[in-house]
Amino acid sequence: MLDVMKSSITRRLAFGLFAGATLLATAASAQTFPERIIRMVVPYPAGGPTDVIARIVAEEMGKTLGQNVIVENLAGASGAVGTRTVARAEPDGYTIIFGNNQTHGNNMFLLKEPGYDAIKDFAPLAGAGAFEHVFVVSNVLPVKSMQELIALAKADPGKLNYGSTGVGSGSHLATELFMTRTGIKMTHVPFRGAAPLVTELMAGRIDVSNSTLPSVLGQFQAGQMRAIGLASPQRNPQAPDVPTLREQGITNADAESWAAFFAPVNTPKPILDKLSATILAILNKPDVKERITKLGFTLNVRDPETFKPYLAKEIQTWADVIKAANIMPEGN
Description:
332 residues; D-Maltodextrin-Binding Protein, domain 2; 2 domains; globular; BUG
């Protein structure tokens, strides 16, 4: 009996020593982190607003952490390709992602096999804010207001097409919400990101898009397309001449697409804390805020604990929109 007790105590002591050594190793690793290049995945093509913001933050992270932070564009499957790559990456802090409401929300309902779980597989690092949506139309389309667009769509249901940055993207679901509220029907044309959508819209091959403001701000300011309505409670200072939907008699159709930074869920907490503190500080720097705000992005910086309930609420909101619009899951 005595030998059994001694054996049990020895095992507990060994386990305790092992656990203690592991904690010390993790703490030491966090102190020296990072020791090599960090990869920030953007699950969309280069050139879109998500990509631009990620590159601004990555550049500043490199300065703060003393290691390069490279942006890698892994587009495809409505952002699922890049997102699942990060979910399966080594959880050591050297692979993170700049995701959004599509990659870390809507794909759970709109892809049959996204290849990851947006909640279980990721740890939030920082909520950055949101992209407001603005209705833009091709210059060849004879409409200059939201009511004119509604009238044209009702005259021939389904004839007008609208572009989005992919099935389940904010631009897709925000337009479905708008059509539900106004009783119109347009044909959906999904793209793999903002850049190709904008090109087709300027060429007149796409009639309309409820795009994120940063993705089309420069183009409609240059007269390459026409902005006719902002899906936000108030006008945006970067586009003060664009009236809101509410000003044009359309209620309950406002929408925004949030964006946030994530790491694989099993990344050691000291490293998560270091990455989170770094990104939060960068997003609150006056010069960074100015650069990002000029893109038309609305900054609303949240730490991980504040972002988690916001994330849960947003997922539920858009799940309800998907159900109401009767959008069925697709293959990926």
